[in-house]
Amino acid sequence: MNPEHLAAVHRRYQQVPSYQYYGITVLELTEGSAQVTMAWQSWFANSNGFMHGGVLATLIDSVIGIAARTVTSRITTTVECKVNFIRPVREQDLRANAEIMHKGNSLLVGRGDVFDSQGRLIATGTATYAMLQEDDWEKYQMPAQEKD
Amino acid sequence: MNPEHLAAVHRRYQQVPSYQYYGITVLELTEGSAQVTMAWQSWFANSNGFMHGGVLATLIDSVIGIAARTVTSRITTTVECKVNFIRPVREQDLRANAEIMHKGNSLLVGRGDVFDSQGRLIATGTATYAMLQEDDWEKYQMPAQEKD
Amino acid sequence: MNPEHLAAVHRRYQQVPSYQYYGITVLELTEGSAQVTMAWQSWFANSNGFMHGGVLATLIDSVIGIAARTVTSRITTTVECKVNFIRPVREQDLRANAEIMHKGNSLLVGRGDVFDSQGRLIATGTATYAMLQEDDWEKYQMPAQEKD
Amino acid sequence: MNPEHLAAVHRRYQQVPSYQYYGITVLELTEGSAQVTMAWQSWFANSNGFMHGGVLATLIDSVIGIAARTVTSRITTTVECKVNFIRPVREQDLRANAEIMHKGNSLLVGRGDVFDSQGRLIATGTATYAMLQEDDWEKYQMPAQEKD
Predict the structure, then answer these.
(1) Which residue stretches of chain D have pLDDT < 70?
(2) Which of A105, C67, C100, C112 suits a disulfide with C60, CB 3.0-4.6 Å?
(3) Residue D105 CA neighbour count, 13 Å, CB half
(4) Nearest-angstrom CA–CA distance, D72 and D77
């Protein structure tokens, strides 16, 4: 991947609604890896006052998904994601790293780790992504067309 | 669990910031199961315009976590969660069901399924929760106290 | 799927070396589901004397994989598998059920549950399978050819 | 952990029935990590002739479980394990590494990777282990006592 591709990925993720909402900002991209931050939002709190596990899962799926974009121009969609929650966290900005472990013909596998400001591991996860072909992408549009 | 406990769980989840933000509303609770809806929010969109996988993971962690509360009064925290994303979805309200498959001495395991308005399976997942003792809960407060 | 296909799947799995070794026997197949038994082998014991988690994972991957064959004639390969171990078990024959939850264009998702002789849940899991095309299958043969 | 503890773990795993059967041999142990090999057995073959996913899951659960023993003297039991299968493999000895990512009060989380003889990634996984107390261990004996 050339630097232009990485720059385009970086620009793209600055405009995605869900990333803006979650306060996810791309810090660094290389071919096969990504590093992001997520700024604490008050609505991250679950019923115990800690960050909702789903928010941490979102951060992990996001950082691995962004890393996936550094190795392919095809549309990617998450097949599955698994997260281990290591330490509860509250009212803190977090940092997350991801690396792509394997890129096959149609599937990508990556892992991601989340750290707090003191560098302690907060959560770790793995995810599989499908890389779609153009014709697959057309099919993916169908559900929305059916809606109308 | 008596009806008062289920009613208390129901009330509690109407006030949690993250559930309000995600538009998650409890529909029905029985001992060991929960059913919720999640109303589409524009910020759910990922870079492809579909619902972010992390939002679906949040819905699954939420519905299983709510079902967990129907079988224990102890504080629960997610140990791990794994989600399979079956069909992409966009601009739709979703429904999710969960059941607790096992309650041990300190761990709970549950599964959850997400459906679209036409009853098609959108995502499915499993999660493990730790049930904390009072003294554990005290320890969980520490990170925030350290912050001050 | 016609009854001949189910009968062929049944026959095939009676001859697979790994299934014979693990004592896995197909009890029942329908389109999208499978039920098998696994007979205790002394070498299943882990360092604590209980059945090794990997053996339970093998049983779950097997029963879901067999169920997968009831819905496709294509070669399938496991993409990922996740198992929750609910109760330790030793020196017991087990029963496992699986159902295919979704069959897409190239991926299948299924879930499986393992029970002891008293009907208690021992383990539960989900798995994703890739359905290969003929040309993919040719590629899969390559590693062995490289070996020679 | 002192060298005696590591040596005791090493000896113990040379005598476990399941490890002998799978041809799993410990190569190296440090505090928090393990490296093992697994020698190809003809019964590893699944219905396609490739190594059964369950055997790879067993290898990953084993190597992470062995690494877990380097950081605790308590009995450990697998809570959950998730494996991504990266490349199919046949008739090959494999090598696996694991590291413990976190040791809490009652739970351990580790990750493990499997490589072929050419150093290519074959599978990767994560697992959670519960560290039992003596009284928990007594309870774990009960199922076998019930059997008699």
Answers:
(1) 1, 134-148
(2) C112
(3) 10
(4) 12
pLDDT in the model for residue C123: 98
List all chains that touch chain D, counting a touch as 3 or more CB pairs closer than 8 Å. A, B, C
Of D115, D17, D19, which Cα lies nearest the Cα of D66? Answer: D19
The upper half-sphere exposure of residue D136, i.e. CA atoms within 13 Å in the direction of its Cβ, equals 14
pLDDT of residue D135: 56
Q: Which 8-state DSSP code applies to residue D118?
A: T
| pLDDT tens-digit map of B45-67 | 887 789 999 999 999 999 999 99
Interface of C with D in 83-142 (CB under 8 A): 83-85, 87-92, 127, 140
Sheet strands side by side (includes C94-103): C24-30, C33-38, C94-103, C107-115, C121-131, C76-85, D76-85, D121-131, D107-115, D94-103, D33-38, D24-30
Whether the complex's predicted ipTM is more than 0.85 is answered with yes
List the single residue in C with minimal CA-CA distance to D42. C17
Range of the domain at B9: 3-147
Read off the CATH number of the domain in which A131 is found.
3.10.129.10
Residues in CB range of D54: below 8 A, 6 or more apart: C18, C22, C54, C55, C57, C58, C59, C60, C61, C62
Radius of gyration over every alpha carbon of chain C, rounded to an integer in angstroms: 16
The first and second tokens of residue C30, run together, are: 């329908």
Q: How far is CA C143 from CA A102, C18, D119, in A?
A: 17, 20, 14
Whole-number Cα distances in Å, B74 to A87, B27, B105, B136: 18, 22, 11, 10
pLDDT of residue C9: 87
**Interhelix angle A3-14/A53-69, nearest 10 degrees:** 150
Q: How many domains does chain D have?
A: 1
Mean pLDDT, range C24-52, rounded to an integer: 93
Taking the CA of residue A27 and the nearest CA in chain B, the distance in Å comes to 17
Residues of chain B with pLDDT under 50: 141-148
Q: Are D62 and D14 in contact (CB under 8 A)?
A: no
* Distance, CA of B80 to CA of A125 (rounded, Å): 9
CB pair distance less than 8 Å for D92 and C20: no
Strands B24-30 and A121-131 come out as unpaired
The answer to whether D82 contacts chain A (CB < 8 Å) is yes
Distance, in Å, from the CA atom of D68 to the CA atom of D1, rounded to the nearest integer, reads: 12
- β-pair partners for A108: A103, A129
Q: Which two tokens stand for residue B106?
A: 């300190």
